[in-house]
Amino acid sequence: MRCNLGQEVGYSIRFEDATSAATKIKFLTDGLLLREALVDPLLSRYSVIMVDEAHERSLSSDVLLGLLKKIRKKRSDLRIIVSSATLQAEDFLNFFAGDDDSIGKIISLEGRMYPVDIHYLEQPAEDYVERAVKTVFDIHSQEAEGDILIFLTGREEIETTIEMIADRAASLNPNAPRLQPLPLFAGLSTDQQMYVFEPAAENTRKVIVATNIAEASVTIEGIVYVIDCGFVKLRAYNPTAGIETLTATPVSKASATQRAGRAGRTKPGKCYRLYTELAYESLPDATVPEIQRSNLAPTTLQLKALGIDNIARFDYLTPPPAELIIRALELLYSLGALDDFAKLTKPLGTRMAELAVEPMMAKVLLTAPSFGCLSEILSIAAMTSLQGNVWFYHEGQKKAQETARRKFAVEEGDHLTLLNAYHAFVTKGKKEAKWCRDNYLNYKSMTRAVSVRNQLRRYLERFGIDVSESLSGDGVLRAGGPDKAEQVRRCLTTGFFAHAARMQPDGTFKTVGGMTLHAHPTSLMFNRKADWVIFHEIMETGNKTFIRDISRIEKGWLLEYAPKYYNTSR
């Protein structure tokens, strides 16, 4: 519309708002629109709401559709557009209209697609990363020009693949066309993500190695060849253990089709599936909706705050399993967000719903003033919201990175180490990116942490909480001595008690539910001794389950701060 961003056209994402009073068209995440409904339950400032990529069945978009259906009963003037790339249009229409044909219409817009040849493996691949790299060089030596897009499951695989391609490309004939491998995953800074959209240099073929972020969210010009590993990392919540993991799972047929389609945008293309045709036939038709495999505590808290008390009777596109709802209610009850009648507690529950962080961290933030460590917890909350890409390293510099990190390291674990890194950044590194480079800290991430922290501070200020800063000197452990560090860890336990584990003689950890976990190699608790710990994040890689952002705690604190969750059997 040829206007300045933030004027007639703007956007709003978590912790960042680029809109103004003049904004007529606003792009925002489904999660953020749900948050807006807390303040304006009928979303009265909008006359048209369009939910895009609805077929991805994300948790927020499913809940949003249920909410919009409710709002429509009160606002017949509201126009709702649901757009989806796959043929589930009937399901969406039936959800809103039921038997009433007059309510909605299905409009089909055929995009222009060029034919894509699909190639399968004759034998299953033992290692799809190795096979993907081999396929890149086969394409490069035998096929016409055009960029390559590889679908893998996560950051570690992507970084390994890029290294392997770069290593092998070095032995190509110097006069042959070059290969330029580029990563694309959610944890990258915006600048790094933008590289994939730049046209390749002359005589160079781009190889973009991506997660499923490239399946529907972005379109990259010039892709002619797609290599599909056939897997995707999906969130899966285990209600028995009370733990949400990221696990590599076979893709659905719908996803495989979406991936192949990326090769036919500008001219005929080819898709190389790193699995057999038989394996493709046995794939599920569609991915299991997120609502049926997620920790529903954040969603339950939001629905309660929206005044939807009967969570089980809410109109879901696909209802979640009962045990997920029960587990969410249990966790929120033990966090103190719900009372004995499953009603939101005031002020704790309502404030937890308003904070733009997970319920566990929301509880920690709201408890911090009583432990006298609000400044520290604000910094830790900001640092842990960055999805683990605070530290960076270049190949061959692992030793130097370790030494740099040791400067900030605190015996008690990762949370206090992150706090020290944040504190050092705001006192020394904010002015110069060089300081960050020397200390192997990601400057972009650190700047983002500062802005997230300011936002969280403003939320707490709105609740009337005293947010005057207590940090002094140049590090957490000198700000009031060792007791401060203990207060921080005690405070973290009030929210993360459900993420507690005990170290075993072999160095692994076991949860109370008996699940075996390993400290992630990037954690300070890797190869360190501890008795009990709490952790922030959990992920599965291969056949191991790793935990990240780990801090030591005392077993007694679990009983002290979570008496409704734990009891001891003598």
Automatic annotation (TrEMBL):
Return the EC number: 3.6.4.13
Q: Which residues form the Helicase C-terminal domain?
A: 120-307
Recorded hits in SUPFAM superfamilies, A to Z, give: P-loop containing nucleoside triphosphate hydrolases (SSF52540)
The cross-references to Pfam families, in alphabetical order and at most eight, read: HA2_C (PF21010), Helicase_C (PF00271), OB_NTP_bind (PF07717), WHD_HA2 (PF04408)
Q: Where is the Helicase ATP-binding domain?
A: 1-105
Q: Which organism is it from?
A: Phyllosticta capitalensis
Q: What is this protein called?
A: RNA helicase
Which InterPro entries has this protein been placed in?
A: DEAD-box_helicase_OB_fold, DNA/RNA_helicase_DEAH_CS, HA2_WH, Helicase-assoc_dom, Helicase_ATP-bd, Helicase_C-like, P-loop_NTPase
Keyword Nucleotide-binding assigned to the entry: answer is: yes
- Keyword annotations of the record: ATP-binding, Hydrolase, Nucleotide-binding
